[in-house]
Amino acid sequence: MKKILVVDDDEMFRDIFDEILTQAGHTVVCVDSGEAALKHARAHHLDFILMDIHMKHMSGIEAIRALRADKSINNMPILAVTGMSGNDLYDEIYAAGADGYITKALDAKQLLKRINQMLSSD
Question: What tens-digit pLDDT sequence spans the chain (122 residues)?
Fold first, then answer.
């Protein structure tokens, strides 16, 4: 199906997202930082990025901005993932260039539905 990059500094969440997406038939690559996400996205064709927002060194917000600034990779859908909530945060996520967000308190069906909606709209 689709090649999805999962970006999260928490190994447990990387494993959870990897399992959910792999079982749904997607090819999944996991990285643990915004810097690694930029490097991987520039070197490989991807269909979708699932990006944690709160990471050390380079936040997901910073990584999304950098991805959107790079004309060679700025068109792929990015779904931000956060354990926090609040309209200011959601506004910042969209302002950075994410196509949507989802909270970490989710179930597999909810995650897959959101990803499929975003993939079908591009």
Answer: 899 999 999 999 999 999 999 999 999 999 999 999 999 999 999 999 999 999 988 999 999 999 999 998 888 999 999 887 778 889 999 999 999 999 887 777 888 888 888 888 76
In the chain, domain spans: 3-106
With contact defined as beta carbons under 8 Å apart, do 13 and 104 qualify? Answer: yes
- The one-character DSSP state at 56 is S
3-106 maps to CATH 3.40.50.2300: yes
Q: Are 97 and 62 in contact (CB under 8 A)?
A: no
